Amino acid sequence: MDYQPLWLTLKLALATTGCLLLVGIPIAAGLAKNKSKFKPFLEAVISLPLVLPPSVLGFYLLLAFSPNNGLGKFLESAFNLRLVFSFPGLVISSVIYSLPFMVHPVQAGLEALPRSLREASQTLGKSSWQTFTQVLLPNIKPALLTGTILTFAHTLGEFGLVLMIGGNIPGVTKVASIAIYDEVESLNFSEAHRYAAILLVISFVILLTVYFTNKRLSKQKLPI
Amino acid sequence: MIRISIRKKLHLAGGKGELNIDAELSDFSFTALYGPSGAGKTTLLRIIAGLLQPEQGIIEVNGQTWLNTAKKINLPSQKRNIGFVFQDYALFPNMTVQENLLYALPPKAERSKIKSLLTTMGLQNLAQQKPELLSGGQKQRVALARALVRQPQILLLDEPLSALDNTNRIQLQNELQNIHQQHQLTTLLVSHHVPEIFKLAGWVIQIDAGQLIKTGTPNEVFGIHTHHEGIALTGEVVTLLLGNIEVLTAYGLISIKPSAQTVGLAIGDKVTIHAADLSLVKLS
Question: Could you tell me which residues come within 8 angstroms of residue B84 by beta carbon, excluding any fewer than 6 positions away?
Answer without folding.
Answer: A119, A120, A123, B45, B49, B147, B156, B158
